[in-house]
Structure formats: structure tokens, C-alpha cells
Amino acid sequence: REDELKHGYNEIEGWYPLFKPTDKLTIQPGGLINDKSIGSGGAVYLDVNYKFVPWFNLTVRNRYNHNNYSSTDLSGELDNNDTYEVGTYWNFKITEKFSYTFEPHYFIRVNDFNSSNGKDHHWEITNTFRYRINEHWLPYFELRWLDRNVEPYHREQNQIRIGTKYFF
Length: 168
Hints:
transmembrane, mainly beta, Oligogalacturonate-sp_porin, cell outer membrane, transport, sugar transport
């Protein structure tokens, strides 16, 4: 069916603010591992965050996404369908407990693959809403546009994610 709810992805992520040269600038490496129905993968990234004012900061991320399994590429060969990703996080603090983030991300296929839009690159745009319960718990709700799908329905792809972050 074309309009059914599916689950097929799990992820765990970690990061650490390694270098903070000023009270406004932070450089932070991170990484994640994931699993899905066709195999596992991971990513490493580097974030640079700048706090412009108390209610707004911007993060720029460079990330490499790797799949631990092979897929058939456009030439019929087996290869890893990896991507290089550049993203920005426009973080707005609305109140002491409520925040909003606008996240445009640009993905480029590393090997001979196309994204679901039929090109070797695509955009994903996310709107994230968070509510801080306390110093440890931060539930969130995300609405994401995953670019236009070429097959089989030739329509926009969207994703909804609901989750909770826990801070140690």
C-alpha cells in the first residue's frame, strides 16, 4: 500500500563539545551508528556552533554517512551508497523550555548512485520542536521534507519523528 505507516530505522548518536575557544564559539565532533532492514551504517561529523545572541545560535555541520553493506550502483557494480552531507541548524530559543530548529541539509552521493529524486544529490529540510522537561529530558517532534521521489509515485517524501533526548 502506498499510504501506510512503516518503521525500519534505529539510531544512537553521541557528541562532545571538544573545543570552546570563546563563550560563543564551540567546535564539536560527533558520530552515530544505525541499523535498518537492509544493514547497518554509521557517520562521523564535525559541528561548528556560534551563539549570536542568547535566543539564537547557528551550527554548521560537515558529515560523512557510511553504509556497512553493498548495494548495486548505476553501473551494475556492488559498492557502498555513502553520502557527504553539509547541514545547518538555525536554533531559536522561544522560551526557557520551548525551542525551534530549522535544518536544511544537502547530501551528495559519494559513489555511482542516485538519490530517490533521480539525481546524485538531494535536499532534506527539517523543522524540529523541543520542550525541555528538566536538565536531563528533552522530548522533540520533527517534520521533515525528503525531496521529491521519482519512483514509484512521483510525489513529495515527508517524515515525522518523535523522540526524546537524554543528557547525562
